[in-house]
Amino acid sequence: MKKHLLLLFIFPALVTFSQTNSGSSTTYDDFTRFDIGYEGNGGMAHNGWQTNAVAIEFEKSFKTSPFSRNYRASFGLSQKGNFYMHMPVGPIAGLLAAIVVAKSSSSNSCGGIGLSALLFILPDGFGFTPLQTDKMHVGIYANFLGVDYCNDPYTNPKTGVTTNGTFDYAPDIGVRTNMYFGKKFFAFVRLSGKYSTRFAGWGAQGTAGVGWDFDKN
């Protein structure tokens, strides 16, 4: 699996190298993208783990640069038909902090509100999109602050205790391609390797769908 993850980065790296050595100037879009699509997770065959979900993602570039921040959430069902969800850690932590501040009588509530707001806007991860043309954007991304929740029965291998509903720290890294039809509308494909802390291993994740770029001119 590690070899496959390495291959995800070869194409964007070659594109960047080619642009750097061609002597031509490169301009990047200031984009604000929202997309929705089908997301499938799998590859944990030794645990029989697989999910099918609807994923939504918001991605914003850092001005006119190849770097961006992204937020992704997905909701669906596991292979066993139980509820599955992926969420970025930031908004969850921000909401919990806001609840604590609301119930607290501390005089330092302004600081708590500020912390809640800061946590809430933390992204799922960051992207790097070196190839940007009028018709196509190709780049890589790494999401470090994502968590999964699944309502499948899970037996802790250390304690032997079985529970229904567990959270799982689940970062992923991958490559994405956006194909534009006109200035705003695009279709996309994302392929990534996703790590499961609960299963202590890598799996595969793929997403395909459509989106809208609010800033692309």
Strand count: 11
CATH architecture: Beta Barrel
Q: What does the overall shape look like?
A: globular
Approximately what portion of the residues adopt beta-strand conformation? over 45%
Radius of gyration: 19 Å
Number of domains: 1
Model regions low in confidence, pLDDT < 50 over at least 5 residues:
1-9, 16-25
Strand order of the largest sheet: 1-2-3-5-6-9-10-11
CATH fold descriptor: Porin
| CATH level 1 name | Mainly Beta
Helical run tally = 4
Jot down its keywords.
217 residues; alpha+beta; Porin; 11 strands
Report on this model:
The structure is a single chain. By secondary structure, the chain is of the alpha+beta class. The chain has a single domain (2-11, 32-89, 126-213), classed as Beta Barrel (Porin). The protein contains four helices and eleven strands; from the N terminus they run H-H-E-E-E-E-H-H-E-E-E-E-E-E-E. It has helices at 2-8, 10-22, 89-103, 109-120, and strands spanning 32-44, 49-61, 67-78, 83-88, 125-132, 136-143, 146-155, 162-169, 172-181, 185-196, 201-213. The protein has an eight-stranded antiparallel beta barrel with strand order 1-2-3-5-6-9-10-11. Strand 10 (185-196) and strand 11 (201-213) form a beta hairpin. Helix 3 packs antiparallel against helix 4. The longest helix is centred in the middle third of the chain and has 15 residues, at 89-103. The N and C termini lie far apart (39 Å). Residues 1-9 and 16-25 have low confidence and may be disordered.
Question: What would a concise description of this structure say?
Answer:
This protein has 217 residues and is of the alpha+beta class. The chain has one domain: Porin (Beta Barrel). It is 22% helix and 52% strand.
